[in-house]
Amino acid sequence: PDKCLNLGFQTFHCVFSFGEILGLEIRPVQEDKYPAIPSSSLQSCVGIHRKTMKYILVVAFLGAAVAFPINDADDDKIVGGYTCSKNSLPYQASLNIGYHFCGGALINSRWVVSAAHCYKSSIQVRLGEHNLAVNEGTEQYINSAKVIRHPSYSSSTLNNDIMLIKLASAATLNSYVNTIALPTSCVATGTQCLISGWGNTLSSGTNYPDLLQCLKAPVLSSSQCSRAYPGQITSNMICIGYLEGGKDSCQGDSGGPVACNGVLQGIVSWGIGCAQKGYPGVYTKVCNYVSWIQNTIAAN
After folding, report:
1. Catalytic residue check, 117
2. Which of 161, 182, 224, 270 is the most exposed place for a label (fewest CB within 10 A)?
3. CATH placement of domain 90-179+289-299
4. What are the E-state strand segments in the chain?
5. Under CATH, what is the fold of the domain 192-287?
6. Which of 13, 117, 130, 150 is catalytic?
7. Looking at 32-99, which runs of residues are DSSP E strands?
């Protein structure tokens, strides 16, 4: 069978194609679970770009499939974007476990929203960052007090891919560290949005930037999204990007914010490859979760 393997810095992005022989679809998984393998064929090489694969699938002679973990979660970055103006996105967070592994967005002084597939029981949230390699004097490093995944999150489908992080102490809000508003309505098709993160900048190969990257991209229609990913898009997902390819989020951007008209409308979630023609990025549709966010914050 064909095999597609991309090993990136801080990221083991693993994709396999078994074509018509086995008709296997490799889905993103949590680190403590084996990948779900539905017996329905999909694209020849499935690259989970916001959510990275963490298992190698070995196919034995008798058709048995065995999964072996190859690395912990590391996610996505921006392909085809540009370096953001320094400290222009004060809501941007870097989730850190000794290294940057996911993004997030500060929604009030004590809470950050990210993707559920970025879950770790303990996370250091880094705010006020621009250059990850340099202490610029604007940063605030705050440990998590609680990390709460959506109760209906599915690691096999990535439905409800949203998570809240309560900070152990309140962030000091200033021009470098500030919040982004939650939506009061869902975003319209065609709206230009701003995606940001420190993920991989290459659609083929790896280059993880120190400087925060930005990308402006349009919201696609639900029909365009469903045609790109038949049978995989739920009502809690939204596609943002370019069907012609070339611009996208990628490994290392997971959990990061999508701001539309200054409001948090998306969370970097998943996709096939990075910036591949016909496969736009898929994002958690934040407008569906405002009540859950508010209720969870009130209860914790």
Report:
1. yes
2. 224
3. 2.40.10.10
4. 3-8, 11-16, 55-59, 65-69, 76-79, 82-83, 92-96, 100-108, 111-114, 124-127, 140-149, 163-167, 192-197, 213-218, 237-240, 248-251, 257-260, 263-270, 281-285
5. Thrombin, subunit H (2.40.10)
6. 117
7. 55-59, 65-69, 76-79, 82-83, 92-96
CB-based contacts of 19, cutoff 8 Å, min separation 6: 1, 2, 41, 44
Active site annotation includes 254: yes
Are 90-179+289-299 and 192-287 in the same CATH fold?
Answer: yes
pLDDT in tens, 98-130: 999 999 999 999 999 999 999 999 999 999 999
The structure tokens listed for 192 are 């230009």
Q: Is 85 a catalytic residue?
A: no
CB contact at 8 A, 159 and 152: yes
Q: How far apart are CA 151 and CA 117, in angstroms?
A: 12
pLDDT tens digits for 65-87?
333 333 333 333 489 999 999 99
Domain ranges across the chain: 3-69, 90-179+289-299, 192-287
Of these residues, 161, 249, 253, 269, which one is catalytic? 161
